[in-house]
Design a protein that fits this description.
By secondary structure, the protein is α+β, with helices and mostly antiparallel strands. Among the domains are: about 225-455, Alpha-Beta Complex (Cathepsin B, Chain A), CATH 3.90.70; about 460-620, no CATH class; about 630-760, no CATH class. Helices cover about 30% and strands about 25% of the residues. Helix 17 (about 575-595) packs across helix 19 (about 610-620). The radius of gyration is 34 Å and the shape is elongated.
Length: about 775
């Protein structure tokens, strides 16, 4: 049914949002019964969102005749041949969280002249003087016009700032929701533990430029498309693809129909199989990734084995979502749908379905313990407790929970009636949108699909396996010995399972943008070297974190290489303590492992990822030394010794000098510094901190034939009641101009770290007089 005869104006403005009025309008333009519209799940979901206190929808603008490209293609492919005239023009409904009337909106479009009783300018006739009354009327009219313009400008700004989004209504009954874009809740966008995909969508409403950050969604019409088609359409709208022409649902269905193995039906209204979806990805120039059939089987006689497979799949699903969603790639998830009518009733099988995962939420405390028992590695993706999905049977950004319940389910392709599923084996979504709907759904995932650029050839699982192998070596080396285990665990704050791994796909631009924004003292590796280094476009990043979620190091892998290639690229170090451990312990471990000629031959010819990491550690030359040069200056010998600083033909070393070496406890945990003592300090060529008593000797007495990078005094200032360090050392700092302010700041941070002191005052090398 066409809506061209229903309205004489191009638009209607509802000053106050009202769900029943919206349903009445949609019922009229789609020839759908009001009751069907009013009880439609998608509209109730939208209503629940629009009336949320954070959104607070006020006014609605309806474009009566809107040309939507996707529906126009669907119309030409199918609906134009119907006997009923469904019409080719759609309706677009816009939502705002500000209030305005139809008159105010009309005035904005018209420029505000309808309310002006006089023109903006006043022309005098010849040299005739203005009467007092005419002058008053002229200035009143000009003031009124200026006031109107300000109001219109304010309304325009308000429309742009308070735009929520839109939905398109196609003129067909029941399945009438076409494309739409509704912004997510602000609390989701402002929470660092949540990540959702967004696309900057420019909207032109009668010349008014609006924008909304949201990933578009669409309802299947059950005529030219099915749920898998809608999921594919949403997937292709991801901003990372930057496609100018998104195929319409009918085009996607015809792409599946054109395949030799595809069904002979005109359109795949019953759904697309994985083969068809993979072929569609290929036809669009993307490489399909399908996960499911090879990693899960639920028909084993051993139910424990089946449950383990289910858990493994859910965990792997979370890994895929985290690693690819972080790269702004959606995930298509195939699933079985179960639904129940009452709180204590069973879940009954309703059929197969496909949705698009567009985000996730992290909560470390909820599932990590159970899921980490699956293998010996902790993953950041284990923290996922919610998915955000575009579900064409529900709406955009629907939150789905990974359930921790035992649930009774009935029916399904591979399940026995009344079979109990265990924890973490299903995804649950509860619909609380109105008093008319109160159902609970459970989704049992059985398939994961996505399409990536063909250049991305290295799969996630290879990177994960490399991290597992390296993690096992770390656990065995660092935490294997009873004596060093406790000290090392305290030193780098890792658990008995090793590191927490944060694995995700990225690109070189995003990587370098992140590196350049890292504060200099929070990265050990050379930023200049990393930023200027040539790298592939797509990169796998694996960040190893300690138990406090602090990054220690990051492995970079070439995601574009061939399968048999050496994909390891670089290690970025973020923690000096861990870097020192690598230099002293891990390097020795790799050297020992490849000591024999046969092993050395394998070592230098192999392209195994772990071997490549070992090569980088063994063959790394002067990187740590370069770091110390950059942060503290190059090492220098003392300019001279005093007579009493040499005894028995050897340098004298203070008996109570404190050296903060690799596993030393901070001074604050041993013996605190005395505020009445004047201390001297230096950082030696190896990067260790030496502190001694100035009354017991000069800087050369802090070590045996010691070379220092930077040195000075450490004393407590009564005037400020604070500790102070300075660069005053006649032996090592005679040319203080060779040192920068940053060198002293870095030394101050190191002294604070190992002494437990805080807020130390720093005297810079350029300051001749001690303040």
């Amino acid at each position: 049914m066409s809506n061209k005869n229903l309205f004489t104006s191009a638009f209607t403005v509802y000053k106050e949002y009202n769900f029943e009025a919206l349903c009445h309008y949609i019922s009229s333009v789609t020839n759908t019964e009001f009751q069907v519209v009013h009880t439609k799940i998608q509209l109730n979901y939208l209503h629940h969102y629009l009336t949320h206190k954070e959104v607070n929808t006020k006014s609605v603008v309806v474009e009566h005749e809107y040309i939507e490209k996707s529906y126009l293609e669907d119309y030409a492919d199918y609906f134009v041949r119907c006997f009923n005239d469904y019409g080719k023009k759609s309706t677009r409904i816009h939502f705002f969280s500000c209030e305005f009337s139809e008159l105010e909106f009309s005035n904005l479009l018209a420029g505000g002249k309808e309310n002006q009783s006089e023109p903006f300018s006043f022309k005098k006739k010849s040299k005739e003087r203005l009467s007092p009354n005419s002058k008053t009327r002229f200035f009143l009219n000009r003031t009124r016009a200026s006031s109107n313009n300000k109001k219109l400008s304010t309304l325009l700004d308000s429309l742009q700032e308070n735009y929520i989004g839109y939905i398109v209504i196609r003129p067909i009954p029941r399945t009438f929701i076409a494309s739409g874009a509704i912004r997510p809740y602000k609390y989701i966008l402002n929470d660092e533990t949540k990540n959702v995909l967004l696309k900057n969508i420019q909207v032109n409403l009668f010349g008014i430029e609006l924008k909304v950050d949201a990933l578009p969604f669409q309802e299947q019409d059950r005529v030219v498309s099915a749920c898998a088609t809608s999921s594919l359409w949403t997937y292709l709208n991801a901003p990372i693809f930057n496609l100018k022409d998104i195929p319409s649902p009918s085009t996607i269905s015809k792409m599946a129909f054109s395949l030799p193995e595809a069904s002979k039906l005109d359109f795949h209204t019953s759904g697309l199989d994985p083969y068809s979806m993979s072929s569609i990805f290929r036809s669009l120039g993307l490489s399909p990734i399908e996960i499911g059939k090879d990693v899960m089987s639920f028909e084993e006689a051993d139910k424990d084995c089946a449950l383990t497979n289910r858990r493994n799949f859910i965990r792997h699903l979370k890994e895929i979502v985290y690693s690819y969603n972080s790269f702004k790639l959606p995930i298509i998830m195939g699933l079985e749908v179960y639904e129940r009518e009452s709180d204590d009733g069973p879940f009954i099988y309703k059929g197969s379905h496909a949705v698009t995962i567009v985000g996730y939420s992290l909560n470390r405390s909820k599932f990590t313990k159970l899921e980490s028992e699956i293998d010996d590695i902790d993953l950041k993706s284990d923290d996922i407790n919610y998915f955000y999905i575009h579900d064409d049977q529900l709406g955009p950004y629907a939150r789905t929970e990974i359930t921790n319940d035992n649930l009774r389910i009935i029916g399904g392709p591979q399940n026995e009636d009344s079979h109990l599923r265990d924890a973490n084996s299903q995804i649950k979504i509860k619909i609380h949108q109105s008093s008319l709907i109160d159902k609970e759904r459970v989704y049992l995932p059985n398939l994961v699909m996505l399409g990536v650029y063909p250049k991305i050839r290295i799969p996630y699982i290879r990177i994960k396996n490399t991290c597992i192998s390296f993690n096992a070596r770390i656990v065995d080396l660092f935490l294997g010995g009873a004596e060093t285990s406790e000290a090392l665990k305290k030193f780098i704050n890792i658990t008995e399972k090793g590191f927490l791994w944060d694995i995700k796909l990225t690109n070189v631009n995003e990587l370098k943008k992140r590196i350049i924004n890292i504060e200099k003292h929070k990265i050990v590796s050379s930023r200049l070297s990393l930023l200027s280094k040539s790298m592939p476009k797509y990169i796998w990043s694996a960040i190893a974190k300690d138990d406090l979620n602090h990054p220690l190091f990051e492995f970079l892998f070439d995601a574009t290489d061939i399968q048999q290639g050496a994909v390891f690229l670089e290690t970025i170090y973020y923690d000096l303590k861990y870097k020192m451990l690598v230099d002293q312990l891990l390097k020795e471990s790799f050297e020992t492992a490849f000591r024999s000629p046969l092993e050395q031959n394998y070592f230098y010819l192999s392209t195994d990822d772990i071997t490549e990491i070992g090569k980088s550690i063994i063959e790394e030359k002067q990187s740590y030394s370069s770091y110390l040069d950059e942060h503290f200056g190059p090492p220098r010998p003392p300019a001279y010794y005093k007579v009493d600083e040499v005894s028995n033909n050897a340098p004298v070393v203070q008996s109570k000098v404190t050296t903060q070496k690799l596993l030393s406890e901070p001074l604050s945990q041993n013996k605190p510094l005395d505020t009445d003592v004047k201390y001297i300090w230096l950082i030696c060529s190896e990067g260790f901190l030496h502190i001694g008593d100035d009354s017991q000797g000069g800087h050369p007495t802090l070590g045996n034939s010691i070379w220092a990078r930077i040195a000075g005094e450490l004393l407590f200032k009564e005037q400020t009641q604070k500790w102070q360090i300075n660069p005053f050392s006649g032996r090592y700092m005679r040319h203080r101009e060779w040192h920068s302010q940053q060198h002293m700041i870095n030394a101050g941070l190191m002294i604070e770290k190992y002494t437990g002191l805080s807020d130390i005052d720093v005297v810079y090398p350029s300051q001749e007089v001690q303040p």
